[in-house]
Write a sequence for this structure.
């Protein structure tokens, strides 16, 4: 028998915000949190481990956090895009900023990898949030 | 806070590992499909890493 969510989707109705906003916000605050609140602990733990370790390796490699700065078009896109990606790490980003992590942009492969690790951890967390959304709306198990 | 210095290969290996785990989890619907797709992504990352590394080495002479 089709669930209420499946019936709503079949009729083209949108799923109520209250049904998915909790898992999505939990997923932003804590990587894998959206899965934990929906009792998908195995997947949540793997997402938490992957995103958190990637973010921490980025910090240990002294990667730079992007700040929203304007310049020419490419500079603006890179800095704003990087800032959004960093911000997607949720509590990890907020804690690092609160504890005063501030690394100037320096030349060197290791620093550069660190910067990419931090931004990519945020992008992976966005994927995890989308997955939590799809589970909450019944598109996925 | 500790500071680590990874080689290109180590950093790219870790990047591949973490990214493959997440891509496997979010892309497929069953656990077996997730495991297989994660392993496939990881193998592709490593193949690209080694392959492009050789291309750059040969290109530089």
């Amino acid at each position: 028998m089709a669930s209420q969510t499946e019936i709503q989707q079949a009729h083209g109705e949108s799923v109520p915000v209250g049904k998915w906003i909790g898992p999505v916000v939990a997923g932003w605050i804590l990587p894998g949190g959206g899965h934990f609140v929906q009792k998908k602990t195995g997947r949540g733990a793997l997402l938490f481990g992957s995103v958190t370790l990637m973010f921490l390796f980025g910090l240990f490699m002294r990667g730079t956090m992007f700040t929203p700065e304007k310049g020419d078009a490419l500079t603006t896109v890179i800095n704003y895009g990087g800032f959004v990606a960093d911000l997607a790490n949720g509590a990890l980003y907020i804690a690092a900023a609160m504890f005063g992590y501030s690394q100037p942009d320096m030349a060197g492969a290791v620093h550069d990898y660190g910067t990419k690790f931090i931004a990519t951890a945020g992008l992976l967390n966005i994927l995890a949030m989308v997955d939590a959304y799809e589970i909450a709306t019944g598109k996925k198990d | 806070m500790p500071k680590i210095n990874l080689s290109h290969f180590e950093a790219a290996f870790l990047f591949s590992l973490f990214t493959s785990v997440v891509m496997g989890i979010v892309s497929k619907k069953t656990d077996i499909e997730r495991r297989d797709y994660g392993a496939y992504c990881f193998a592709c990352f490593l193949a690209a890493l080694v392959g492009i590394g050789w291309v750059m080495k040969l290109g530089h002479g």
Observations:
- The mean pLDDT of chain A is 89.
- Helices of chain A lie at 4-10, 17-29, 33-36, 41-60, 73-87, 91-98, 109-136.
- Chain A touches chain B at residues 43, 46-47, 49-51, 53-54, 57, 59-62, 101, 109-110, 113, 116-117, 120-121, 124, 127-128, 130-131, 140-141 (CB under 8 Å).
